[in-house]
């Protein structure tokens, strides 16, 4: 009796969750993307790298090399969205330069396993960046995202900006849970910058509906429900 009751309640919870996700899709095909979503500008360099990354005949070595380069561009674009303050420095020639520096610490949280493909680019752009890990997997029966592992940098709620990195974001289910985890640990929405190589409009629509104050940086607009092919090619399995 108790087992049947628990199973029934889990089924009802799963149905409510799927219905809530479905309701977040309303208007995605007619409404414009949020102004807080930035899609990487398609320069000849970006188009050339995308061609190699998405070509199924590209070797594993070339795929990893060009994806690392692309990851650097995405993280650099994400850094344009963090909070800065003015700073005056002295140049080697003895002149004063009016520049900028981050207001506080910038850390990163990697959504495993796809987000680990960004680590090479992250180390090149922010060598001393403190990182955390999240492992979110979909339940094979219900399709709901489940949090299996969590390790965040100490005092992350005091950091001025937190980058949330994942290789792909299609339906947005995992991204919603990842952002919610950060919010639950005290990170304000406007300090979260999500960076992803590829995302569908449904996922972006859902994420910005629930968390309107976060910033999202996307390399490409892709299919709304796409297989996670990037991590398979990057990690060769």
From TrEMBL:
GO molecular function: ATP binding; uridine kinase activity
Keyword Nucleotide-binding: yes
Keywords: ATP-binding, Kinase, Nucleotide-binding, Transferase
GO biological process: pyrimidine-containing compound salvage
Pfam families associated with the record: UPRTase
Domain Phosphoribosyltransferase: 42-223
Family of the protein in this entry: Belongs to the uridine kinase family.
Name listed for the protein in its UniProt record: uridine/cytidine kinase
Source species of the chain: Monosporascus ibericus
């Amino acid at each position: 009796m108790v087992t049947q009751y628990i199973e029934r309640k889990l089924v009802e919870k799963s149905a409510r969750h799927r219905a809530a996700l479905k309701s977040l899709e309303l208007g995605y095909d007619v409404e414009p993307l949020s102004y807080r979503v930035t899609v990487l500008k398609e320069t000849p360099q970006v188009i050339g790298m995308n061609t190699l990354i998405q070509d199924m005949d590209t070797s594993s070595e070339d795929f990893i090399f060009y994806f690392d380069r692309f990851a650097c561009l995405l993280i650099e674009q994400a850094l344009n969205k963090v909070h800065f303050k003015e700073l005056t420095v002295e140049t080697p020639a003895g002149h004063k330069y009016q520049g900028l520096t981050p207001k506080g610490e910038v850390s990163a949280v990697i959504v495993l396993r796809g987000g680990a493909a960004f680590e090479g680019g992250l180390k090149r752009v922010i060598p001393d960046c403190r990182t955390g890990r999240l492992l979110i997997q979909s339940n094979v029966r219900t399709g709901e995202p489940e949090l299996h592992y969590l390790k965040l940098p100490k005092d992350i709620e005091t950091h001025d900006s937190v980058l949330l990195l994942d290789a792909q974001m299609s339906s947005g289910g995992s991204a919603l849970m990842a952002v919610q985890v950060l919010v639950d640990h005290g990170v304000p929405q406007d300090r979260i910058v999500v960076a992803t190589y590829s995302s569908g409009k449904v996922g972006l629509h859902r994420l910005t509906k629930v968390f309107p104050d976060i910033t999202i940086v996307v390399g490409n607009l892709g299919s709304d429900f796409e297989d996670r092919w990037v991590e398979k090619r990057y990690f060769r399995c």
